[in-house]
Amino acid sequence: MPAPLETFTARLARTRDATRVAGLDALLITPSPDLRYLLGVAGASHERLTCLVLPADGDPVLVVPALERPGLDGTPVLALGLEIAEWTDEQDPYALVTAVLRRAGSPVTRAGVGDAMPAAHVLALRDAQPACEQKLASTVLAQLRMRKDSAEIAALTVAGEAIDRVHARMGKWLRIGRTEAQVAADVAAAIVEEGHTSAAFVIVGSGPNGASPHHDVSTRVLAPGDVVVVDIGGPTPDGYFSDCTRTYSLGEPADADAAAGYAVLQAAQDAAVAAVAPGVTAEQVDAAARMPITNAGFGERFIHRTGHGIGLDVHEQPYIVAGNDLVLEPGMAFSIEPGIYFRGHWGARIEDIVVVTDSGVTRLNHRPRDLAILPV
Ligand code: ZN
Ligand code: ZN
Ligand code: ZN
Q1: How far is the CA of 214 from the centre of ligand 1 (A)?
Q2: Which pLDDT belongs to residue 3?
Q3: How far is the CA of 308 from the centre of ligand 2 (A)?
Q4: How many CA atoms lie within 13 Å of 363's alpha carbon, on the beta-carbon side?
Q5: d(CA 315, ligand 2 centre) in Å
Q6: How high does pLDDT run on average in the chain?
Q7: Which tens digits make up the pLDDT trace of 47-105?
């Protein structure tokens, strides 16, 4: 369901205020989830510059290649009454951005450029405005984007339900004799069937491959006793991502210590989710996940942070990691995904998306979290 226009009007106004408070004169946002957050269109980034110019004092202007102007018909951009500045291939779009900024009045000495802006545009903007210091736009936008409104939470809930339905079907595809890649192809198709626009990632890490947290897929053939990490997700039509990991076993796990190790991991994931509440810091949640694992002697096996924010990006702020003293607030959404990894043997991870509520926490993924022993 597309967001109502008022959503974007309010976001643009809040962003302008926050830009001023951050001591920046403007934000420059190229096609990205940031742009989708602000205007309801993601656009496509390439060598031709599309850029939302957001002066701290003044009205926003969208700079677009003339040939892409028709593509804006029917988007919120027109309904918002945003000024559109077109440029043709014979013109210099960076000079146009400079002209738009000058028109807003006071000189632009510090601008925030979108974190995902291609370097080619960043450097060309720098050449066009040599006196302008460039900062990251996330200094302004991350603060806004990590506090989700109820429509965004609803969108993440829909995404969570969709990916849960894919995990519910996993037993059909995870069979002895099939390769990880064959399984992943079925999973990717199901991710789309169950309501995503694409399968952004499908990790099927079987046996020793499960010990590599960002393993993709391989031609390894599934064998009896394999422990298999399946980490999958993608964007829904609203642009909000799912991301959920479950760990399966093809029959009883071949590694004698897998069941006990997994039990520790499951306790850690539960402890971390239980620790989430408004007023708690991100690093306290990370510590809550780490403690049971460390106490069991597996501290060195948990080789990544506990989680990441999620929304229009699959990985965004807040990061649930040691050193992040950010205080959690209602509306923040992030993963809780501790893992333990035994190089050359097996690995396991459990991942749910959670949302901070007024009084605590809600999980958006609901599939059972035990080691799922599939019949062989
Ligand atoms: Zn990851
Ligand atoms: Zn994740
Ligand atoms: Zn994941």
Answers
A1: 6
A2: 78
A3: 6
A4: 18
A5: 7
A6: 96
A7: 999 999 999 999 999 999 999 999 999 888 999 999 999 999 999 999 999 999 988 67
Query: Ligand 2 mean position to 38 CA, how many Å?
Result: 24
| Lowest mean pLDDT, pick from 105-114, 191-200, 240-249, 356-365 | 105-114
Q: What are the residues whose beta carbon lies below 5 Å from ligand 2 (ion)? A: 243, 335
Q: What is the pLDDT of residue 352?
A: 98
Distance CA 349, CA 339 (A): 4
Gap from CA of 307 to ligand 3 centroid (Å): 9
Counting ligands in written order, the one closest to the CA of 201 is: 3
Q: Tell me which ligand sits closest to the C-alpha of residue 233.
A: 3
Domain ranges of the chain: 5-145, 150-374
CATH of 150-374, one of 3.20.20.60, 3.30.200.20, 3.90.230.10, 3.40.50.2000: 3.90.230.10
Contacts (Cβ under 8 Å, ≥6 apart) of 200: 233, 234, 235, 241, 314
Distance from the alpha carbon of residue 180 to the mean position of ligand 3, in angstroms: 17
Are 152 and 161 contacting, i.e. CB atoms less than 8 angstroms apart? no
Q: What is the pTM assigned to this prediction?
A: 0.95
Q: Is the pLDDT of residue 43 over 90?
A: no
Cβ-contact 333, 153 below 8 angstroms:
yes
**Alpha carbon of 351 to ligand 1 centroid (Å):** 10
Ligand 2 centre from 300 Cα, in Å? 20
Q: Which tokens go with 193?
A: 């069937």
The rounded Å distance from CA 351 to ligand 3 centre is: 6
Q: In this predicted structure, what is the pLDDT of residue 40?
A: 92
Class of domain 5-145: alpha beta
Q: What is the pLDDT of residue 1?
A: 61
Using the mean position of ligand 1's atoms as its centre, give its distance from the Cα of residue 167 in Å: 17
Quick one: average pLDDT of 288-317?
Answer: 97
Considering only CA atoms, give the Rg of the chain. Answer: 23
pLDDT in tens, 153-195: 999 999 999 999 999 999 999 999 999 999 999 999 999 999 9
CA of 335 to the centre of ligand 3 (A): 8
